[in-house]
Write a structure and sequence with these properties.
With 580 residues, this protein is α/β, with parallel strands linked by helices. It folds into three domains: 86 residues, Urease, subunit C, domain 1, CATH 2.30.40.10; 353 residues, Metal-dependent hydrolases (TIM Barrel), CATH 3.20.20; 108 residues, Roll (Diaminopimelate Epimerase, Chain A, domain 1), CATH 3.10.310. 34% of the residues lie in helices and 19% in strands. It binds zinc ion. Zinc ion binds next to loops.
């Protein structure tokens, strides 16, 4: 018996040696014939050593081999499709760390959202809308942020009245908005007693600034509902546009069970060209109701497949930097009046949860197997959330849960240390830095911005940093709110410059390799999928993008001009611009 088994084992090893020799001689075993081979490229694998390869072989939607041209050509068979990269650079499929594709896909239907860069353009647009709409019809800008206008000042109700006296106007800035007199009157805001309605003095007339908590009082008519087919069609178009800038996966910032069902159906119907990890948004209601609702959920983080997976449980902890409602550690200061119309310099922003409430929710989420994440945009909000994470951590370590902070923006040295110790992941949006850094510099001053987007401090402390856009409206990759072109974001992380060229704490920049990791392997880590995607390695999902320029070596300012020539998801070409 012993001998026989030895013989058998011996044969087995002999077969391995023969197979290995055959492979070395350029003849791969028959079962490993590739469906597709990409060769003659500069393939930035983003593996552990950041190695560069010339070619990859793909079979059944996965990479089966990565290496030199001759090694990979050994996997070619009669039906292999071979793509000559002609020296082009290839990166792993980019993972958009935080976006809202559903609302964005519908945001320009039926009317396009104008690209407005100053108050004059805004006034012209409102006046033009007033001319074409019936008296009394609402004029709404669905995503309007004052920090994005070159004038850097708040509008007045009077200004809005001057161009549209007979139309209710509302400029929606997500966390606060601006209404004109007509909008105030038809919504009854002057008579309502609500803390979200800003008034010139207690009991005085509304100024026109309406905070998120009072948005429900606005009498804006709901748009006609879209059919499921229309929604799906718009979503396919949106994902096609994501593919055109190299995006192959997205973490959906927040959505409900219905949205999740929509992605699952699209997946079943073969309509997805972007993989989805969807956070489940829990709107603020009394915490007990949130806990009850959590118990009823029939799914949890990680459920799903390689195409559609359940993400984190998400809550919104504070306001936003675009509207001066982010919850800071100190007051927004004197200069916030001009930009945001905040009359009280000691106003710190809006905080929607107490630390205790967050502790209760985080513990419950952890016990039910959820990853927990929260939108937090100011340092005070970050500290409150971290204190709640720490309280949970004392009861049961949270490291393996990969909890995260969405946006954050301001991270003190202490906050960075705590995040590293508890394994809290930073879900960052370089767009905030690029688009809004200059406005915040004006309001808060340079000193207070030393904790603003401190990529280098986070990275060196060992915090996993991921990148995303928070794309929420408009379709164009560069003109959308917020721009979802990953190469613009990568450039801003590397160049550390704002939109108008201000270099702000350049020592907080990351290298190109690190910035690429933010959009690939780090975001795969965030969804617990780093073993399946985020780098070009054998066994991983065959998602990649072919670029017009060398991301690692091109002149720095050219990074933002990089175009995607071809995008592949699951080994299938989902975008190409015929320039390869
Ligand atoms: Zn978001």
């Amino acid at each position: 018996m012993r001998n026989r088994s030895f013989v058998r084992t011996g044969f087995f090893y002999a077969w391995i040696v023969i197979a290995g020799l055959a492979f070395a001689a350029g003849c791969a075993p028959g079962k490993e014939r590739a469906d597709t081979i990409l060769m003659n490229g500069k393939i930035i694998t983003v593996d552990k050593d950041f190695s560069i390869a010339e070619a990859v072989a793909i079979r059944n939607g996965r990479f089966i081999a990565v290496g030199k041209n001759d090694e990979i050509l050994a996997f070619a068979g009669d039906s292999t499709n071979t793509i000559d990269l002609k020296g082009r650079t290839v990166v792993p499929g980019l993972i958009e760390g935080h976006a809202h594709p559903l609302s964005a896909s519908q945001s320009e239907y039926p009317d396009p959202i104008p690209h407005i860069t100053n108050i004059k353009e805004l006034m012209d647009w409102i006046a033009q809308q007033a001319r074409t709409r019936k008296k009394g019809e609402w004029i709404v800008h669905p995503k309007f942020f004052i920090t994005r206008l070159s004038d850097m000042r708040q509008l007045s109700k009077k200004e809005l009245d001057s161009v549209a006296p007979d139309h209710p106007v509302f400029l929606n800035g997500s966390y606060a908005g601006m209404a004109n007199s007509k909008a105030i009157a038809v919504s009854g805001l002057d008579k309502a007693d609500h803390p979200g309605i800003d008034r010139s003095k207690p009991g005085g007339a509304p100024t026109g600034i309406v905070r998120r908590s009072a948005f429900g009082l606005l009498a804006i008519p709901k748009p006609a509902p879209l059919s499921d087919q229309e929604k799906t069609k718009m979503m396919m178009q949106m994902f096609g546009l994501y593919n055109s800038v190299g995006i192959t996966s997205v973490c959906v910032g927040g959505g409900d069970g219905q949205q999740l069902e929509m992605y699952k159906k699209m997946n079943a119907d073969g309509q997805l060209t972007v993989r989805v990890f969807q956070n489940i948004y829990f709107p603020k209601v009394p915490v007990q109701e949130m806990l009850d609702s959590l118990k009823l959920k029939e799914y949890k983080t990680g459920d799903g497949d390689d195409w559609v997976r359940v993400g984190a449980l998400k809550v919104v902890v504070d306001g936003g930097v675009l509207t001066g409602t982010a919850y800071l550690n100190e007051g927004w200061g004197e200069k916030a009046q001009r930009l945001y119309g905040l009359p009280d310099p000691l106003y710190r922003g809006e905080l929607f949860f107490s630390q205790k409430e967050l502790e209760t929710l985080i513990s419950a989420a952890q016990q039910a197997g959820w990853k927990f994440t929260a939108h937090v945009t100011g340092g005070g909000g970050v500290d409150t959330l971290l204190a709640a994470f720490a309280a949970t951590d004392r009861l049961a370590p949270v490291k393996q849960n990969r909890f995260s902070i969405i946006h954050g923006n301001f991270f003190s040295e202490e906050a960075v240390r705590k995040m590293a110790a508890m394994g809290i992941y930073a879900d960052m949006q370089p767009d905030w830095f690029y688009k809004d850094g200059s406005a915040l510099l004006q309001v808060l001053g340079k000193e207070r911005l030393n904790a603003f987007h401190p990529y280098r401090s986070l990275w060196d402390a060992g915090v996993v940093v991921g990148g995303g856009s928070d794309h929420m409206a408009k379709l164009d990759p560069d003109l959308s709110i917020n721009p979802y072109n990953p190469f613009l974001s990568i450039w801003s992380v590397v160049a550390r410059k704002t939109e108008n060229g201000i270099s702000l704490y350049p020592e907080q920049a990351l290298s190109r390799k690190e910035a690429l990791q933010m959009y690939t392997i780090n975001n795969a880590y965030a969804s617990f999928e780093e073993n399946g995607k985020g780098s070009i390695e054998p066994g991983k999902l065959a998602d990649l993008a072919v670029l017009s320029d060398d991301l690692l070596l091109c002149p720095e300012d050219d990074i933002r001009k990089i175009k995607v020539l071809l995008t592949m998801v699951d080994g299938r070409v989902v975008y190409e611009n015929n320039q390869l």
